[in-house]
Design a protein that fits this description.
35% of the residues lie in helices and 21% in strands. The protein is of the alpha/beta class and 203 residues long.
Length: 203
């Protein structure tokens, strides 16, 4: 499948990219610094910023599905909502319907799946980022795309195990999950419509 990938240079984005290429997909990835994504078979790197509509359009053009793994480091200006706005406009322009976006547990109706201590930490240190993710999810849910929002728990750099919980059951709590396992679940959504227009948690 031809995939447009946003957020490819982040921890989870790199895992999505590596696993997508290993599975035989072709990827168009947007990167502000293309040098961070070495050339290889199956990968086309588009230089630019997701906040630049022309760059978002160029990344989506000619693809069949979009994977959005946008993230913001604490202290930086959140890009999740504004970037997703550009991505949705690009998808509309080029007639691409399938969207898989990685958000976070603690957003939307998954807030109850986060323990109280972490909720306090989020409100103190990640409030603006979580607000941006809330706005991002609202934009996606209001769109006419065939979306799936993936909400992972606490991300680690552990290996790809294939052993994780995923679904809408509120008994799934925000435990640790490797970025590699999140990428595995994200890529499965390309051919699985079970979670179409839903926001499953992964932990």
């Amino acid at each position: 499948m031809h995939i447009a990938l946003f957020g490819a240079t982040g921890g989870t984005g790199r895992q999505v990219l590596e696993q997508a290429l290993a599975a035989g997909h072709t990827v168009r990835a947007l990167a502000r610094d293309p040098a961070r994504l070495p050339a290889r078979d199956g990968l086309t790197v588009i230089g630019g910023d997701v906040l630049d509509q022309a760059a978002a359009d160029a990344c989506v053009e000619g693809t069949e599905a979009v994977i959005c793994v946008l993230g913001t480091k604490p202290g930086d200006e959140p890009v999740e909502a504004a970037g997703t706005e550009r991505i949705l406009a690009a998808m509309d322009k080029h007639g691409v319907k399938r969207l898989i976006a990685v958000s976070s547990m603690g957003v939307g109706d998954s807030v109850e799946q986060i323990n109280l201590a972490f909720r306090v930490i989020m409100n103190l240190t990640l409030k603006r980022i979580m607000q941006a993710k809330e706005a991002q999810e609202r934009l996606i849910m209001a769109s006419d795309t065939d979306w799936t929002i993936v909400r992972p728990g606490g991300l680690t750099d552990g290996p790809h195990t294939g052993r994780y919980q995923a679904g809408r059951d509120k008994s799934i709590k925000a435990g640790r999950v490797s970025r590699a396992d999140v990428a595995d679940f994200v890529l499965r959504q390309l051919t699985d419509e079970r979670w179409l227009r839903q926001a499953p948690s992964v932990s």
